[in-house]
Amino acid sequence: MNSAAEPYNRNEKNMPSYANKEVLTTGEVASICHVAPRTVSKWFDTGKLRGYRIPGSRDRRIPRQQLEAFMRAHGIPMDGLTGESWRVLVVDPDPVGEVVEELHQRSGFEVTTAKNGFEAGVIAQRVQPDVILLDISGGRHEEAVAICRNIKDTDTLRGATVVAAVDDADCQADRLKAEGFDEVIARPYTAEALVGIARAASASVR
């Protein structure tokens, strides 16, 4: 996984934040979705993106809730809408479907899954995750430690927070952190736990 590329730094993003706006113009939606304003107008006119026209004007307005639903339905990243995004990679042969789905539904969170170390390496280089969760169960401890070390040895990934999910987190936390993991959480892991870790990691580098 070694790479000589520059490390990814989320703070290098410099985009307007629409986190507090409940209604957006077509121009703002275009900026958020990285498309031309005429594309947004077409979405609106064909009924794909719901909104309303200002009385006596041709100007369109898009409620935030409608835009969020549209973006999720079409796989458009949410970072343009919130001004922040968190990418989470879950490495688990049998990921918890409810957790993955809940993360997908949260504004600003993008989640991908990998079943093993090889997949994790390929996907991590592509999506540059902020949080990487490794499920350590069923005798996968050595593999998980190897994945963790590879991540820490890769320039473009070493800023990621690497999390171990284990059955007895309290007993294993010190050992796993000594082996390179940044956080240790209990199995079954939850979306709330991953959200908290992602936000805490983001705040710590501001």
Describe it:
Helices cover 42% and strands 17% of the residues. By secondary structure, the protein is α/β, with parallel strands linked by helices. The protein folds into 2 domains: 59 residues, Multidrug-efflux Transporter Regulator, Chain: A, Domain 2 (Orthogonal Bundle), CATH 1.10.1660; 120 residues, Rossmann fold (3-Layer(aba) Sandwich). Helix 7 links the parallel strand 6 and strand 7. Helix 1 packs across helix 2. The longest helix has 14 residues. The two termini are 27 Å apart.
How do the strands and helices of this protein lay out in sequence?
Blueprint: E1 23-25, H1 26-33, H2 37-45, E2 52-53, E3 60-63, H3 64-73, H4 79-82, E4 86-91, H5 97-105, E5 109-114, H6 117-127, E6 131-135, H7 141-152, E7 161-166, H8 169-178, E8 183-186, H9 191-204
Parallel strand pairs: 4-5, 4-6, 6-7, 7-8
Antiparallel strand pairs: 1-3, 2-3
Helix pairs in contact: 1-2
Task: Describe the structure in brief.
With 206 residues, this protein is an alpha/beta fold. The chain folds into 2 domains: 23-81, Multidrug-efflux Transporter Regulator, Chain: A, Domain 2; 85-204, 3-Layer(aba) Sandwich (Rossmann fold), CATH 3.40.50.2300.
Using the coordinates above, name the CATH class of the largest domain. Answer: Alpha Beta
Order of helices and strands: EHHEEHHEHEHEHEHEH
Under CATH, the topology of the largest domain can be stated as Rossmann fold
Strand content: 15-25%
Terminal-residue CA separation: 27 Å
Number of domains in the coordinates?
Answer: 2
The CATH H-level homologous superfamily of the largest domain: Response regulator
SS-based class: alpha/beta
Poorly predicted ranges (pLDDT <50, ≥5 residues)?
Answer: 2-15
At CATH's second level, what is the architecture of the largest domain? 3-Layer(aba) Sandwich
Shape: elongated
**Cross-sheet strand order for the largest sheet:** 5-4-6-7-8
Q: Can you count the beta strands?
A: 8
Tally of separate helices: 9
Please bin the fraction of helical residues: 40-55%
Largest sheet: 5 strands, parallel
